[in-house]
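Entry type: protein chain
Record version: 2
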Amino acid sequence: MDISIDKDVCIGAGQCALAAPGVFTQDDDGFSEVLPGREDGGGDAMVREAARACPVGAITVSET
């Protein structure tokens, strides 16, 4: 699994961090980012739900 966040689209709503806190966090400016070492989702079943929860569709999850 490959997770990417379009920083130009992200508005910092934080829905991803709420849905999958083991994979997503927010940076110092409040924008979402993937936790270091979790770029592959770390087996978290909620990664796809976190992507769906993003109100602006800034998160892309694809199979590698």
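Comment: Strands lie at 2-5, 24-26, 32-34, 59-62.
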